[in-house]
Amino acid sequence: MFRLISAEQLKWRRTFIPQLVWITPLFTLLLCGVLMGGSYFQTGAYNWWYTMLLPGALTLVCCLAVQKDARMKYRAILALPLPPHTLWSAKIAAVTGWLLAASLLFFAGISSGGWLFGPVIPLQNSAAGSLLIVITFLWQIPLCLFLAARFGLFAAVLINMAFNVAGVVTFDTGGLWNFMPYTITFRLMCPVLHILPNGLPVPEGSLLRSTDTILRDVLVSLAWFCILFFVTARRFRRQEAK
Predict the structure, then answer these.
(1) Which of 28, 166, 170, 213 has the greatest number of C-beta atoms within 10 Å?
(2) What is the rounded (10 degree) CA torsion for 96, 101, 102, 106?
(3) What is the model's pTM?
(4) How would residue 241 be classed by pLDDT, with cut points 50, 70 and 90?
(5) Residue 40 and residue 45: Cα distance in Å, rounded?
(6) Is the CB of residue 24 less than 8 Å from the CB of residue 52?
């Protein structure tokens, strides 16, 4: 599997993916450092990171990760003596590595910015928030890879970003919306970072500060990842018959 992941990453050499791993967090930090700075730097950077810039960059990475194979109608990889779902798993794992690297760079940058401008978010909360963002974004990887393979770059970015915006609007609606994956990250950042998706602080005494649903939301997000992983892997296996 490690060789397959390395092979996937080798395909990225002539794409924008390696640059996006540091451009995305750096752009987020510079944007908030210039426009906000001071006591608003950390909260503003996190807000831009998980609501817009990370989902947008992750969708683009997924699109670029399948673009070369899609142009060849997957003939090169499906000709390998390996099950198609194994090749699909390698793609998901490679993009997961990109997500981890970008998130680590963002965490290092926002922690350094906290020491420069003054820490507003405690380090342990920031670390927990970054980890939860990674976990609750995992399900978007198989989804975006599938959307890119099926509909192309423009449609994949448009669909995923539209639903991310919808998640911002409906994150505190309750009911069945609590189990919709696009609302989970925004809801989790309220008790962990005390930030609303619009960048404002969560009011003291608000139910959104409760930590009671963190475990449930994490498990729901992981369940969505497993569901989408198996569904998209099954769909990818059908490429072999075409």
Answers:
(1) 28
(2) 140
(3) 0.91
(4) very low
(5) 8
(6) no
